[in-house]
Amino acid sequence: MQTILSFVIVLSILVFIHELGHFLFAKRAGILVREFAIGFGPKIFSRWKGETLYSIRALPLGGFVRMAGEDPEIVELQTGSEVAVELDDQERVTGLFFPTHPKYQSLPVKGKVTAMDLEKDLFVRLETEDGRSLLYDVHPQAFLYRDQKEKTQIAPLDRQFSSKTLGQRALTILAGPVFNIVLAAVLFMVLVKLTGVESKVIHDVVPGSPAAEAGLKSGDVIRAVNGQSIRDGDDLREKVQQSQGQPMLVTVQRGDQVFQTKVKPIWNPQIKQYLMNVRLEQQPATATEVVVKGAKETVMWTDRIFEGFGQLITGKIGIQALGGPVQIASITGQAAEAGLLALIRWTALLSLYLGVFNLLPIPALDGSRLVFIGLEALRGKPVDPNKESMVHFVGFALLMVLMLAVTYNDIMKVFFSQR
């Protein structure tokens, strides 16, 4: 239960932040946002606020912000439809009610739609039962009411995603992944603030390690490497990597004594780094260190994510190495059991992965939508919306097939790997 609860909470936070990015920039551009949803499938909770439906859906494996005009608009109202209209004090239509809605019978103005334009000129013409022709202006925020639970706001052209500038559309799509990357950076900064930074003081030395062979001990202060001063643990780690395994002349202070000793780092193939195998003491981080260290962690893990993508493309690792919802849930549960710091780090990594992955030019992902916007900029005209929608649909279907395969791998690894 703890694993499931931790997974749902963490994933919901990441999805919320991602969709919040899309939502805020869509609103900033004046785009009508029809729905802000966390999860997929049937709605288990929904509430209208303003012109947007906020909903929580049954499957907590994602979410979406549904913007008017992002995909071809489906016109629910057709000529020949029977409707009743609700008017404001300026005689503008604010609501069009179908006969299936309980309010239909109580409205005095009813008729058959003979002409309409709900995107540009905003009007509707009705023919009443007694043969009269009535022409009404339509309010730009009018709703269509099919039944008591469902309503749809009309989307004039200037409120549609497709009518906005290339820059506005690109920023709206880009904002989702960027918000996830920013969240990851913030969480890494929180970790630095909570744990501090490594000092130059050795906490302990691994027995039999290069540091132990060089005579280093707990409490020693590393002052310099090859004549270059050491500021902190990151600085020492950088010098160790630069050595490429060659012996380093390390200046050490032990009490009042200062001496030099040679240390030859060894290669660790698991983490792909050279190591002295010492653990340094932690010290409180300054505000500058919090920001710099958090940013460095974000860049380092981004590099590792892209390295993993590259290995997947070149075949160095197979699909069996991929993790899906089951494995993510399992690791999230383990992180929650390990404590707050472990859970924050894992959430940061997940958020960073979600942001970076969504920027890839894979159909149905944000990166693919950015590619189509880029093509429009190069061609001087948009790609046929129906063709673009088909590309995203096929891409989504393929991702679902991949998800099923990865989930099968997850189940085998998580539940049957020790049998």
Automatic annotation (TrEMBL):
<dbReference type="Pfam" id="PF17820">
    <property type="entry name" value="PDZ_6"/>
</dbReference>
<protein>
    <recommendedName>
        <fullName>Zinc metalloprotease</fullName>
        <ecNumber>3.4.24.-</ecNumber>
    </recommendedName>
</protein>
<dbReference type="InterPro" id="IPR001478">
    <property type="entry name" value="PDZ"/>
</dbReference>
<feature type="transmembrane region" description="Helical">
    <location>
        <begin position="390"/>
        <end position="409"/>
    </location>
</feature>
<keyword id="KW-0479">Metal-binding</keyword>
<keyword id="KW-0482">Metalloprotease</keyword>
<keyword id="KW-0862">Zinc</keyword>
<dbReference type="GO" id="GO:0008237">
    <property type="term" value="F:metallopeptidase activity"/>
</dbReference>
<dbReference type="InterPro" id="IPR008915">
    <property type="entry name" value="Peptidase_M50"/>
</dbReference>
<keyword id="KW-0812">Transmembrane</keyword>
<dbReference type="Pfam" id="PF02163">
    <property type="entry name" value="Peptidase_M50"/>
</dbReference>
<keyword id="KW-0645">Protease</keyword>
<feature type="transmembrane region" description="Helical">
    <location>
        <begin position="340"/>
        <end position="360"/>
    </location>
</feature>
<comment type="similarity">
    <text>Belongs to the peptidase M50B family.</text>
</comment>
<keyword id="KW-1133">Transmembrane helix</keyword>
<dbReference type="InterPro" id="IPR041489">
    <property type="entry name" value="PDZ_6"/>
</dbReference>
<feature type="transmembrane region" description="Helical">
    <location>
        <begin position="170"/>
        <end position="192"/>
    </location>
</feature>
<keyword id="KW-0472">Membrane</keyword>
<dbReference type="InterPro" id="IPR036034">
    <property type="entry name" value="PDZ_sf"/>
</dbReference>
<dbReference type="InterPro" id="IPR004387">
    <property type="entry name" value="Pept_M50_Zn"/>
</dbReference>
<feature type="domain" description="PDZ">
    <location>
        <begin position="192"/>
        <end position="232"/>
    </location>
</feature>
<keyword id="KW-0378">Hydrolase</keyword>
